[in-house]
Amino acid sequence: MKKFITTLKNIFAIEDLRVRILNTLFFIAIFRLGSFVVLPGVDPNQLQDNTSGIFGLLDTFLGGAFSNASIFALGIMPYISASIVLQLLTIAVPYFQKMQKEGESGRKKINQITRVLTIVITLAQAVGFVATINAEAIAINTTLFTITSMIVLTSGTVFCMWLGEKITDKGIGNGISMLIMIGIVSRFPGAIVAEFLSKQLNGALLFLFEILVLFLVVMSVVMLTQAVRRIPVQYAKQVGTSSLYSGQRQFIPLKVNAAGVMPIIFAQSLMFLPSMIASIWADSSETANYIGATFSDFTSWQYNVVFGLLILVFTYFYTAISVNPNQIADDLKRSGGFVPGVKPGLATSEYIDAILTKITLPGAIYLALVAIFPAIAMLFGVTREFSQFFGGTSLLIMVGVVLDTLKQVESYLLMRHYDGMMKSGKLRGRTENIAMVS
């Protein structure tokens, strides 16, 4: 505990870091405040719960802004959708591939296209969102309400984008990811209180057991996020002006879960299709009714089997498009590096691809287990709200954002620490990466 307090003192002793943390808290407070500002023309007392299915998932990411019919009801999600679309286009369309290779100017163009696409997606989703609001809650003319809501919701999403960029520039962590995480974490206190009250006094021991299981699940997700397979790389010897430097030994870190949370997002978006399609023939077919009911219940074994298989497929797919063994091999060859015992070029690419395939399988299986664990938790009596924190997209996003933020804070501490050592003239624990041979 003393070490923890000392670390906090060190964090706030660094002026730049202290200002960034305070800026982040200020921007987050604005974001949370906007989640409770109701759209003009809506009577909040007449709002009904419409957070089932995909709406419940959106409401979890948005911290209740969706169910509150607030000005941030769509939040940052349209921007996420636009970013995914642009990311896929840079892989499939040569025009966007060329733009991505143009460096800083290309990235600016892609960012501008992403913002424009975000506005288009937000306008389309705003119409759908208005349709989810029950007529009793709308206190003005329906047509006027639809038009004004489209404008306000689009403005709210653009403002959330601006907050995210400000957090990235002036605060700590990735702003967009931070806003999503805050929306998820804001539901945790209410969920844990509801879970405790549902167990009552005679279930206190069971509640403590659930907390223990949650802790173990979080730790395992941290391990999955951090796990890497290191491929040793040797660099050729270099001749200096008066000395010969032996090769430097480094590693290529291949993440066990290189796809991150994207396979779950893709798979979850497809899992709504069976029930939507089945609803078309719901009145005339018992089979359609069965399919619709089965795939509307995310605790059914049919739903989870299909969900798990889709995650396995999408994990391999997204890993294949995000990690390019040919490019890694070419970069190594150009820089004079090689994997010991493997020929440079094609052989190195095949070697990296074989290792990537092997480590992706256990990562994909565990990712599927993490995704379906909330359904398993519900089968054991955990409430729906609290079960969302036992796995799935919510937990992966929270762990990823927290780890990235802690890395940034740690980098500030390390820089300050090294400055102090340099001024004092004492260099302890110094290691030589390049051995000098006379």
TrEMBL record:
The family this protein is said to belong to: Belongs to the SecY/SEC61-alpha family.
Keywords in alphabetical order: Cell membrane, Membrane, Protein transport, Translocation, Transmembrane, Transmembrane helix, Transport
Organism: Pontibacter korlensis
Pfam families (UniProt xref): SecY
UniProt entry tagged with the keyword Protein transport: yes
One CC-aspect GO term: plasma membrane
One biological process term in Gene Ontology: protein targeting
Role noted for this protein: The central subunit of the protein translocation channel SecYEG. Consists of two halves formed by TMs 1-5 and 6-10. These two domains form a lateral gate at the front which open onto the bilayer between TMs 2 and 7, and are clamped together by SecE at the back. The channel is closed by both a pore ring composed of hydrophobic SecY resides and a short helix (helix 2A) on the extracellular side of the membrane which forms a plug. The plug probably moves laterally to allow the channel to open. The ring and the pore may move independently.
Subunit comment: Component of the Sec protein translocase complex. Heterotrimer consisting of SecY, SecE and SecG subunits. The heterotrimers can form oligomers, although 1 heterotrimer is thought to be able to translocate proteins. Interacts with the ribosome. Interacts with SecDF, and other proteins may be involved. Interacts with SecA.
Record flagged with keyword Protein transport: yes
Cell location: Cell membrane; Membrane
Primary gene name: secY
Its membrane topology: Multi-pass membrane protein
Positions of transmembrane segments: 21-42, 71-96, 116-138, 144-164, 176-197, 203-224, 258-281, 301-319, 364-383, 389-406
Identification of the protein by name: Protein translocase subunit SecY
Entry-linked InterPro entries: SecY (IPR026593), SecY/SEC61-alpha (IPR002208), SecY_CS (IPR030659), SecY_dom_sf (IPR023201)
Highest taxon of the lineage: Bacteria
